[in-house]
Amino acid sequence: MKEKNDKSILIGVTGGIASIKTALLVSDLAKKGFSVYTILTEAACKFVTPLTFSTISRNPAKTDMFPSQPFPAHLEPKELADYAAIIPATANFLGKLAHGIADDLLTTVLLSFKPEHVMIAPAMNPEMWKNPAVQANSKILAERGYYLIRPATGKVACGDEGEGRLPEIDDLNLHIEKMMQIKDLCKERIVITLGSTMEYIDPVRVITNHSSGKMGLEIAKEAFRRGAKVTLVSGRCETRIPEVFDNHDIRTAIELQKKLFELMEYSTGLIMVAAVADLKPKQSSVKKLKRKDHSIQFIANDDIIASIARKYRKLKTVAFSLQEDLEDKETACTKLKGKNVDMIIANEFSTMGSELSKIRIITGKNEFNFKQMSKADCAKRILDKYAGIKK
User: Fold this and answer.
1) 8-13 and 35-40 strand pairing
2) What pTM does this model have?
3) Active site residues
4) What are the pLDDT digits (tens) for 94-120?
5) What sign has the CA pseudo-torsion 6, 8, 14, 18?
6) Alpha helix locations (H) across 60-183?
7) Before 242, cis peptide (omega within 30)?
């Protein structure tokens, strides 16, 4: 028998067309270094094959409750993994698990798992999902501590539209990682800004900053994995915003400022990653300007995070300082004091838009320098320091 490790997970597959997505998810998890074990129900085998899952997981896919082997099949998966995810979960499966029915390998195996270690991702026709019996069974499972996620909204395989789709693979990955990670930020309600604002010269021309939104999104993902309730306020981005987040779209700095002041009453922290335009036209034309109309007067936008830090003194505040040279510590320290924030992240603008970043973290008393690393690793370092802020 293989040895259990911290990235071992059992994926249960029930009989739905969404199981095609499950195969892609298993492949993705295996590439990330997870040890993935799979169990397919009899109905699941009508849509996908055990051979597919054996091949992409590099572990035998199990289907039979009574195989011809010495070790009982219903016990072996629990010996290999402490966590499980049922993707997709049909209405039939929800009913059986909610009422303790164990009439196949998957339902039997799951009785040996802690409810909080089992993620359930229902997927079915929207009318089926709305059925009172299905809703009642889902409520039972949630109350028992199962990690139940709601279906996504959209068009399902039969052509109907509504809540019932299996979430996208990136979203499922985030939920799995959250279930398996230590929740040291579970008491935090963090607002994270990302992307760039735009200031309108006329209806078709804008002043903006170059920002992909990648760093802000990586911080949001890491905070979500660690249990925080994350709210995003996003400007122009080059990245997809996962549906796991409550996201508010904005365009201008004024829109950003207004939305943040609305959200701060219910938040414990603000991480300001968005690239906010420092300047804006003194007056925006309602009509498209002609080439000859090239004289524009500019005024400064408010320093948003400074105004928030002044008003909400118990709020944990983190600002970013985009710099040409990280050795310029004086600029970052001046911003730390001037904005009255708890932490400044100085980052090199040469890494904007790439998958890598080089950062310097400065707090009131300490300074931390990091070599170039992935934005995902930067997010971990930033949130490690954020977790240590005492207000």
Assistant:
1) parallel
2) 0.90
3) 158
4) 999 999 999 999 999 999 999 999 999
5) positive
6) 76-80, 91-98, 105-110, 126-130, 132-143, 169-180
7) no
